[in-house]
Design goal:
Layout (H helix, E strand, L loop, with lengths): L2 H12 L6 H8 L4 H28 L3 H15 L5 H11 L11 H16 L2 H12 L2 H15 L9 H24 L9
Helix pairs in contact: 2-8, 3-4, 3-5, 3-6, 3-7, 4-9, 6-7, 7-9, 8-9
Amino acid sequence: MNQYLDQIDNDIAGKHLLKHPFYLAWVRGELSKEALTDYAKQYYHHVAAFPTYLSAVHAKCDDQPTRKQILQNLIDEEAGSPNHPELWKQFANALGVHEFETKREPETKDLIETFRAVCGENSTTEGLAALYAYESQIPAICESKIDGLKKHYGFNDPKGYEYFSVHLEADKEHSATERAMLADKIDNRNADSV
């Protein structure tokens, strides 16, 4: 048992993304098609950048077993066929979005810059903690998104929500691996920074 990791889990639960008004509206079927398409365009930038967050943590990690685990996550994100950005495009296409070279809104820029800074400029442990905080929430988010898409937004073809189906399972594994790596790395010397 790692009390510091337990505190991170409590912090994540207290600020879970499923409590955000956008996700609550998604689950209730209250988002307009315009809101969903804008989300698909903007969030694509984060999906496309996510492998760079993993690469940044991988590049500065001195511990080979940890580095290999991060590499496996990176391979899952980037090398699959279709890879994760391509899966996101399938979702966006199902909404009628076919153009992805859209201007990043300030919030999208901030999201990407923050992830890149935490993963690239801070310690390996801090980068892993950021990845864990995000990926540990994704399975529940994906499950609720799939349910909302099918129930409220007419998504009947599984290809349209395959991105979420893949992440529902993959991020259970990724976050469990990240949690195990963190359990070995977080202690009283670095808990405050993580």
